[in-house]
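Researcher: Quick sanity check before group meeting.
Model: Go ahead. Protein one:
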Amino acid sequence: MEVQLDHVRDILRRTPSTLKFLLQDLPEDWLMTNEGGETWSPYDVVGHLIHGEETDWIPRAKMILEHGESRAFTPFNREAMFDHSKGKSIAELLNTFAQLRAESLQQFDELDLTPELLEKRGLHPELGPVTLGQLLATWVVHDVSHIGQIARVMSKQYGEAVGPWKAYLPVLTR
């Protein structure tokens, strides 16, 4: 499927309300538990999404439009949320994310993108040349992927409690 700007905007617009509906007012153990090791909890994921709004998607889109491949993107710190989210409630994080996403979508609209501009290339510090269309598609998939991650982590809270039904619930075995 080709990147369609109205679809990009529509999906990105839904993420904050989806997360708020899913996570607001849940007990802390549902929000803070991860899958073990260096995996992320739902709380961590929301913090990560905030950091992306602040430093990744729109700044990189603007960089592609302004500089093309002449300047590489600033590397993205995928774990910045561990420091930035400390001491904040999930309600604070969800509200911050909603506000930042609204600002990002306003800036997205102000970019006045066209299908032709989606072919414009920038330079990722690890991946090399990328197009604006690829960046926007990645933004959408990043959101949906993290919603799926949150659902998976939450599902695993009752992974043993489901008993023999676990065989029918692949979310628990992936």
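Researcher: Fine. The other one?
Model: Protein two, sequence then structure:
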Amino acid sequence: MSTDAIVVLKEDHKKVKSLFRDFERAADDATARKGELVSTVLEELTVHTYLEDQVMYPEVRRLLPDLEDEILESYEEHHVVDLLCIELTGMAPDDERFDAKVAVLIENVRHHIDEEEGDWFPKVREGLDRAQLQEIGARMQEMRPNAPRNVTEVKSLRKAVDALSA
């Protein structure tokens, strides 16, 4: 598997988008299946945003200061996603607002992915060389096994604060 940071992040995006499609295709009364899918989504998003906030964003911010506004927006989008994830961890799949909250989460994450893949990643690829992207990706992959899996873990909750105060 490639350690190119953009390739690594796009692979995460593919996994999450596939889980979203599975959720959207699930029958209205498939609450157990929807609950399982959302649990997996929450874990995938927690790991992914942690790696971006701890490695990708700070490195790109340091190396490509012209992208700072876009990085700050990405941190804020992650914050919104984190809040939705925290709320979903406390909801049962048969809660009347569960599907609606998941729909809002999906909408927000898809928007974020579209911005990253359509606008931000091309700028990063243009601004950084292959070795830099490989090094950033390798660091993310090294951190992945120890990344928080639950959005309510202290490491996960602190990630946005730590990243913004850097």
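Researcher: One line on it for the slide.
Model: The helical segments are 5-25, 31-63, 68-89, 98-127, 130-143, 154-165.
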